[in-house]
Design a protein that fits this description.
- This protein has one domain.
- Helix content is 81%, strand content 0%.
- It has helices at 5-40, 45-68, 78-107, 112-135.
- α1 packs antiparallel against α2, α1 (5-40) runs antiparallel to α4 (112-135) and α3 runs antiparallel to α4.
- The longest helix is centred in the N-terminal third of the chain and has 36 residues, at 5-40.
- The two termini are 28 Å apart.
């Protein structure tokens, strides 16, 4: 096994991605659980999706800042406020994608749960890219 700085960095990034996947699964449980509960009480698909995603946002920040990007969380003050704002912006992008995909799928006659599954995949990759490259880029980026 090679232990060059580049290989170590690659391995750490892989571990970070695994932690991000696990945090995403936790946030997804909050999101989908809320979504399904709201659907079961008669809430329309798009608002139920938006509400579930919003609750998932809170869960994801808590897990991301404490278990995924803990070494890249800004200190207190303006830098931390900016980082939280960027995280919220990334979440709002994911929310917009999710709501649009679920709404379009529902409008087109697709089962909202299937539309939600597609939206989950799209949102996951878009927010990973934004968060890993912009929100939690650290001092070097």
């Amino acid at each position: 096994m090679e232990l060059s700085p580049a290989s170590i960095l690659t391995r750490l990034r892989d571990v970070r991605f695994v932690r991000y996947v696990l945090a995403s699964v936790g946030a997804l449980a909050v999101d989908v659980g809320s979504f399904l509960a709201l659907l079961s009480i008669g809430t329309a698909a798009a608002p139920a999706s938006a509400a579930g995603y919003s609750l998932g946002i809170v869960a994801h920040w808590l897990m991301s800042s404490r278990a995924v990007f803990q070494d890249k969380v800004a200190g207190r003050g303006a830098a931390r406020t900016q980082q939280k704002a960027l995280f919220v912006i990334s979440a709002l992008i994911g929310l917009a994608l999710t709501t649009a995909i679920v709404g379009a799928g529902d409008w087109g006659g697709m089962d909202p749960r299937l539309a939600k599954a597609g939206a989950i995949m799209v949102s996951f990759f878009v927010t990973w890219l934004i968060r890993s490259r912009i929100v939690f880029r650290g001092e070097e980026g």
